[in-house]
Fold each of these.
Amino acid sequence: MLHGGGVSAAEKEEVDSRSIYVGNVDYACTPEEVQQHFQSCGTVNRVTILTDKFGQPKGFAYVEFVEVEAVQNSLILNESELHGRQIKVSAKRTNVPGMRQFRGRGRPFRPMRGFMPGVPFYPPYAYGRVPRFRRPMRYRPY
């Protein structure tokens, strides 16, 4: 049976339940070294070291195991040393489409002045009278 190229959300969740996030990975570390570090926890299916658009490692990796139990075993290796660096190990979170975190593009909306209930707000002009149009003043020499 062929399906539309993508992986279903259920399949993704199933893979994520067998995967861990490894942070603070040394840039010189290879996927084989990461696999050796975690092979005592269970059977490693795949190691993904994420890279930026220039192919430089980002300093974190995902390890996918064959067994679900291996995730709990691997959490014991949190703060263990790999390549002389203390790595962070946590269970991989499943990305929920549409639940994008705020990534710092622009400023989050904030009202101009603090709202105080019961205190009326007076606009900068005379209250109630807002000038609609003013004829431009002509320059008149003395």
Note: Residues 131 and 138 are 19 Å apart (CA to CA).
Amino acid sequence: MSETPRVTRPFAVFEWMIALRYLRAQRSAGFISVIAGFSFLGIMLGVATLIIVMAVMNGFRNELMDKILGLNGHLIVQVYDTPFTDFDEVDATIDAIDGVRLSFPFIEGQAMASSSLGGFGALVRGMRQADLERLGTISDNVLQGTLEGFDEGESVAIGIRLAERLGLRAGDRMTLISPRGAATPFGTTPRIKSYPVAAVFEIGMSEYDGAFVFMPFQEAQAYFNEDGLASGVEVFVDDPDDVDAFRTRLDETIERPIFISDWRQRNATFFSALEVERNVMFLILMLIVLVAALNIISGLIMLVKDKGHDIAILRTMGATRGSIMRVFFITGAAIGVVGTFAGLILGTLVCWNVESIRQGLSRLTGTELFSPELYYLSRLPAEMDGGEVVAVVIMALLLSFLATLYPSWQAARLDPVEALRYE
């Protein structure tokens, strides 16, 4: 009675031993080891670059959203049928709605801010001191001066970049020039008035720090000839993504014709461009990992050619086609797995220290990297998203595994008789 041959279980110890032996550098296969090394570096750098770029894009978007939505309301309520004289009643009605975090009336107009150094366009917003103090984006970021007594005098609060352009500090005087001045028999004359700078703030977004001027509400009404009126009511809600529900509530609650605009409408083009750029960057950088995976294919094909004699001997000793295929699969997959997780570690370390790295490179090169004038923000943000990181790792591993299939299949198909014919 013949003995049934014992079948070796998949991924047995000897398969791992042979596969890992093929990964070690040998004199006869030095060039193959170099290719494996470059494949490892390619996957590591590709994964790290993907993680870093996606984290910076996420941080950039979230930081901009925090700055934009921290200063501008999630919804703005305006009227269009009659002058907005009942703004206090409308504000009280809005403030009583569940889910509204903050609401306040405001006056808004354009003017030119000037000093002895020159003049720059500015967006003047009239607000009450109590509302300005509740707006943490401003009150928590005052660098010079104070908001105390803001309503009592004729003073303004300006952004740090506007202050630097005009050469002003808290306590200095700034001149505002508005085309909406007094009406005379000869036409409307510009309104020119000088104001002391009560406070200088820094939001961290250059576009806002260089353009916004905050003025007491009643003074803004007088300055823009809007006595007893408001431009609108700004509304901040607990969930900015749920503004559609609040639009419905506001329409049902406010008993007069109103016009409502939300943050998505006002910034639709900007955030859509960011989203498109983010997706395109992901696809482009994924090609780096794909190129590294193709290097795994070329390296394994050369390894199969070089190890044809070894494969033939293994087959004559009883190794199955499946065993041979798994040996080369492990060899190629090991490069992909180690490279992917090395890239994950490298990318995570860079994301945690991206601002320090930016500052170090700026000092080293003597240039300002990530200029606030170009990128709006004063620091380089990076926020890793767990789902995106997992997706990058899975895609890199999948490409690495797929890259090993064809060379492994070729190794399994090798005929031992042909391989040993001329030995």
Note: Residues 1-5 have pLDDT under 50 and may be disordered.
